[in-house]
Amino acid sequence: MLINSTCHAICVAESFRQDRLRDYFKGKKEYRSQIHPDYIHIKRDQWGEAYVFMHGSVVFWGVGIVEVKQFLKVISHSSVDPYEHREEEIYNLAQESGFEIVDSDIIMEHDSEETKVAVSFALAQAVTLKHYESIIAKAMPDLITLPTELAKNGRIGISKKKALKKTGEIFLVRAQINLHSDLLDTPEYFWERTEQEESIYNQVIQEIDLRKRIRKLNHRLDIIQSTYDLLRAHIEHKDGMFLETTIIVLILIEIIFMSMQYMWPPG
């Protein structure tokens, strides 16, 4: 098996502005670009090629690390909400009969564009999912302590302000993932393509356990939703207690005034 190049997938931003990318590459003679609804295919002599997906990921074929960084700087003006931490996956490319992914090696018999597009779609989804997994991994530890504290003490010992802040964080995580939940389904691109392309896409999806990871992600989202409901109930309970206390105080004040009027009637 001859290792001759690399495939590099990176999750860069929330999304890309296709109009800005299109206008930029039209004015650059050194790049050859093909515009598609979901992605832009970029080629350059003695450089390799890249598939820029509008949902914020880029997949490079045969492009060196230095050139990858330079290209990402070039398209940064088209990024919408770029990420500080970029999730990425790097695979070695090898030419051999058949098609398969073994550990960090992608083995392909034919270096066709159809194969590259199918693999790129799957890898772009994988790094996007990896980004969401990182968000949830950061949010989970703090959230898990809340049900534990409730079970241990019978209450959650945080202020209303902190509870509202936590619910905001949970809502933000869910919103980010729900806005792009369609990205984790089979792309519409394959609805009008050959069975071979879709077969390669599904094979990559299976090899990288994408669907299993999506189920795990959804399970964690369910836990986050339960924690969100718990915090919301905690806030409502505190608000209810404050309201009840306020009413009781007002009633006591009214009773005191009525008693004073009864004991010391005016005039």
Q: From the alpha carbons, calculate the radius of gyration and give it in angstroms.
A: 28 Å
SSE order in H/E notation?
A: EHEEEEHEEEHHHH
Poorly predicted spans:
none
What spatial order of strands do you see in the largest sheet? 2-3-4-5-1-6-8-7
The SS-based structural class is alpha+beta
Q: Mean of residue pLDDT?
A: 81
Helix content: 55-70%
Record keyword descriptors for this entry.
single chain; 267 residues
What report would you give on this structure?
The chain has 267 residues and is an alpha+beta fold. Helix content is 55%, strand content 23%. It is built from six helices and eight strands, in the order E-H-E-E-E-E-H-E-E-E-H-H-H-H. It has helices spanning 18-26, 65-74, 113-153, 160-179, 195-207, 210-263, and strands at residues 2-16, 32-35, 39-44, 48-53, 57-61, 79-95, 99-102, 105-108. The protein has an eight-stranded mixed sheet with strand order 2-3-4-5-1-6-8-7, with helices on both faces. A hairpin with a 3-residue loop joins strand 2 and strand 3. Helix 3 (113-153) packs antiparallel against helix 4. The radius of gyration is 28 Å and the shape is elongated. The relative contact order is 0.12. The mean pLDDT is 81.
